[in-house]
Prior knowledge:
By secondary structure, the chain is an alpha/beta fold. The chain contains 7 helices and 13 strands.
Amino acid sequence: MSRADVCVVACAEAWRGDGAVLASPTGLIPRLGARLAQLTFAPGLLLTDGETTLLRDDEAEGWLPYRAVFGVVAAGTRHVMMGASQIDRFGNQNISCIGDWSRPSRQLLGVRGAPGNTVNHTTSYWVPRHAPRVFVPRVDMVSGVGHDRGAVEIRVVVTNLAVLDFATPDRSMRLRSVHPGVSVDEVVAATGFPLAVPADVPSTRTPTATELALIQSRDPEGLREKEIR
């Protein structure tokens, strides 16, 4: 078992209890997590091949053309796990630019679907490198809105170090668990704003033997290891 395997399980847990919603993961580890959830504790979860086909057990079970996804978004029956170049304590996310938005020092993806996602349905984030330059006091540009700007629900932020949520009175970021081998102090030092830290922070759960076998069978080349290096 590796740190990447723990991250896959943590991503899978983000969809626990969602029922029949469309899971839209970005990145290999979130994709493996969504697949693991569907194969184990979330059989009603809907996954696509990224184009028009709904999949179950790697076989087609339905058709979902891209134009229909907008209806799913508006209905709130989707849970996306996106990336974040920057994220702040309320879950405001930036994937657009670094620096002054009118003259950025670095151009990124652009806002893409982040605004519509965050105001219509549940959103989570996957950050493969937890660092102060990602977890910032104020994002340079708001792409996905946070809880202080009208987000429906920013559920969790899964990183290579920990799982974070927003289970606080003001819906600011809280340390939910640390991955095995990681200390609370390491997470706090890697975060560029004050985190809510409970008195007792548990360890992120590790995969069962069955889950580990499923992960390995769907990533036999171990590409997931490279995503968090």
